[in-house]
């Protein structure tokens, strides 16, 4: 058996025999410290011996050529373009056996020195690596430094997928850890894109802590899952750097800031492989590759957060960012997608009624499996939420929720029941302003079933088109509401403009060469009585057969007030 090193635990509390005189208290204390130091040193030698043995036994695997290498100190971080079904080989039964023996000896050492932070930390680390479900139980029984035990518990709960409980455990750990340690744990600088990192670096610890609350809020992958998993993932990564800093690592290299940065940005390795050395010298070492969980996604904002959460648009997220500043791979989904959803706001007294529609009939994941869905409106860094959830959603569905929030981030989220995938749409919104002396307008809502038109919001919501993509040569209904009123003898001009956006480079070139004509916006104008009422529904039919394929901005303007306008970008295929 590998690592079958004899481990004699010392009888620290054994009673002396009658023939042996009692040692002076100071002598007994020195002996106790010596015994403790010997146990701690032996535990460290066990961990080092396991990692040396692991390197010898690692499976051989060709990791491919790095077509884009992110240099971090001594390391190259890259994501090889293998077939999507490629599998990194497992570690093998000899490594499993060696780790199991080490864990048995670490458990004995932990029983002998229950207050040793390093020993319990390594025990938890390797239990999690072995996917041992007892890790949470061991963490709950931890008798080392209190904040350290809470942090270890947070990591075990995070790995188990209990993000809400992990959030609580890490919160308690942060409250009780030393000030300098807390400042380090709360530093998100390595994870932030250039546009954010410069400003963040100038902040004090207290200022960073306030900024972190909003960063974590908008970086939470799915609002529908309790807890903030991206935050608990980060704290688990920080803890992992501490666990590896004072131990031997699988690379066989000295610890450095480059290893810490890699773990913070991309997570710790879940598998290890080796490539045989191509050197002519027999003593040369093989190349060791660590494999993080894949695929990973970038959930942080790509630019500095706006002053108002209402200005956070779906476009400031780029989950497929490449090269990524940071990545996280949720364990509950093997893939993550952007969701095409149509979302519209309508005022109802002091609240806002939000309507969200999607259609995933042709989706490669959700078109073939059962999935849960949620519409979540959240504000104040996630402390307050209004939500609607369905455990099993149809492929085409409309969700509605009423929220009292004045500013909010709204998420439309899907999660496959078989963990095959997750999808989301996310954007910020402000409450539509109401003024009895002026007209304001709701968002635009496209509805199916034209030329018949809905009479009110309830009917329009039922018929809401799933998403923002439309087939050519079809007719689509457009619904909105007007709020407020003007004097009875006045008339209000209304215009609807459809303008092409984001032409391809080739088409722009042809346009410059005058090979194709310049597109002219489609504009419809009419007049309405200004005293229409406090709330009135409107709808018209649009014939998309007159519009070539492409992306278009559809804008409704009521009167001359720029606030009385609504727009939506659609795609005609």
Question: Would you summarize the structure shown here?
Answer:
By secondary structure, the protein is an alpha+beta fold.
Kindly describe this structure.
This protein has 573 residues and is of the alpha+beta class. It has 13 helices and 21 strands. It has helices at 25-57, 93-112, 117-129, 135-140, 146-160, 163-176, 179-185, 194-201, 205-219, 229-245, 257-266, 457-462, 505-512, and strands spanning 70-72, 75-77, 271-275, 287-291, 336-338, 341-348, 351-359, 371-379, 384-390, 396-403, 407-416, 422-430, 440-441, 445-447, 469-470, 475-483, 491-501, 522-529, 535-543, 550-558, 565-572. The strands form 6 sheets. The chain has a 5-stranded mixed sheet with strand order 5-12-11-8-9, with no helix packed on it. A 5-stranded mixed sheet has the order 15-21-20-17-18, with no helix packed on it. Strands 13, 14, 16 and 19 form a 4-stranded antiparallel sheet that branches. Strand 11 (407-416) and strand 12 form a beta hairpin. Helix 5 (146-160) crosses helix 10 and helix 6 (163-176) packs across helix 10 (229-245). The protein starts with 24 loop residues before the first helix and ends with a strand. The model is unreliable at 1-23 (pLDDT under 50).
> What number is the mean pLDDT?
87
Strand line-up of the largest beta sheet: 5-12-11-8-9
Rg measurement, Å: 30 Å
The low-pLDDT segments are: 1-23
List keywords for this structure.
disordered N terminus, 573 residues, 30% helix
């Amino acid at each position: 058996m590998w690592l079958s090193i004899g481990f004699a635990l010392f009888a620290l509390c054994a009673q002396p025999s009658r023939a042996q005189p009692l040692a002076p208290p100071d002598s007994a204390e020195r002996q106790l410290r010596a015994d403790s130091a010997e146990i701690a040193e032996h535990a460290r030698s066990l961990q080092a011996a396991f990692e040396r043995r692991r390197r010898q036994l690692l499976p051989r695997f060709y990791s491919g050529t790095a077509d884009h290498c992110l240099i971090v100190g001594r390391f190259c971080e890259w994501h090889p373009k293998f077939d999507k079904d490629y599998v990194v080989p497992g570690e093998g039964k000899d490594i499993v056996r060696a780790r199991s023996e080490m864990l048995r000896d670490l458990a004995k050492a932990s029983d002998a020195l229950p207050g040793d932070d390093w020993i319990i930390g390594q025990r938890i680390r390797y239990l999690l690596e072995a996917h041992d479900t007892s890790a949470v139980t061991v963490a709950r029984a931890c008798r080392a430094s209190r904040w350290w035990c809470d942090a270890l518990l947070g990591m075990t709960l995070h790995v188990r997928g209990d993000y809400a409980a992990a959030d609580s455990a890490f919160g308690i750990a942060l409250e009780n850890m030393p000030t300098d340690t807390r400042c380090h744990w709360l530093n998100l600088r390595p994870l932030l894109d250039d546009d954010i990192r410069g400003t963040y670096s100038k902040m004090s610890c207290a200022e960073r802590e306030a900024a972190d609350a909003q960063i974590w809020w908008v970086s939470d992958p799915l609002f529908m899952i309790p807890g903030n998993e991206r935050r608990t993932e980060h704290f688990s990564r920080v803890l992992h750097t501490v666990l590896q800093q004072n131990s031997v690592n699988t690379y066989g290299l000295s610890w450095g800031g480059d290893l810490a940065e890699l773990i913070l940005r991309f997570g710790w390795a879940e598998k290890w492989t080796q490539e045989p050395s191509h050197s002519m010298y027999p003593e040369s070492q093989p190349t060791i590759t660590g494999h993080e969980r894949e695929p990973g996604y970038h959930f942080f904002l790509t630019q500095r957060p706006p002053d108002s959460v209402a200005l956070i648009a779906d476009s400031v997220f780029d989950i497929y960012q490449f090269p990524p500043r940071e990545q996280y791979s949720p364990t509950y989904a093997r893939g993550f997608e952007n969701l095409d959803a149509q979302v519209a706001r309508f005022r109802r007294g002091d609240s806002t009624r939000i309507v969200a529609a999607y259609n995933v009939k042709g989706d490669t994941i959700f078109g073939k499996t059962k999935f849960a869905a949620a519409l979540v409106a959240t504000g104040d860094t996630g402390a307050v939420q209004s939500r609607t959830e369905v455990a099993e959603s149809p492929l085409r569905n409309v969700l509605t929720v009423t929220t009292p929030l004045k500013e909010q981030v709204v998420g439309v989220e899907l999660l496959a029941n078989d963990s095959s995938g997750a999808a989301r749409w996310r954007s910020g919104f402000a409450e539509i302003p109401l003024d009895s002396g002026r007209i304001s307008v709701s968002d635009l809502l496209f509805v199916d079933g034209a030329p018949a038109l809905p009479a009110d919001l309830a009917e329009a919501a039922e018929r809401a088109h799933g998403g923002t993509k439309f087939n050519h040569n079809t007719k689509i209904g457009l619904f909105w509401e007007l709020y407020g009123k003007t004097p009875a003898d006045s008339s209000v001009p209304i215009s609807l403009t459809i303008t092409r956006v984001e032409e391809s480079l080739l088409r722009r070139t042809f346009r410059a060469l005058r090979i194709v004509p310049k597109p002219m916006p489609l504009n419809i104008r009419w007049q309405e009585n200004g005293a229409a009422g406090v709330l009135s529904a409107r709808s018209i039919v649009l014939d998309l057969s007159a519009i070539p394929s492409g992306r278009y901005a559809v804008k409704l303007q009521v009167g001359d007030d720029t606030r009385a306008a609504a727009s939506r970008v659609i795609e005609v295929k």
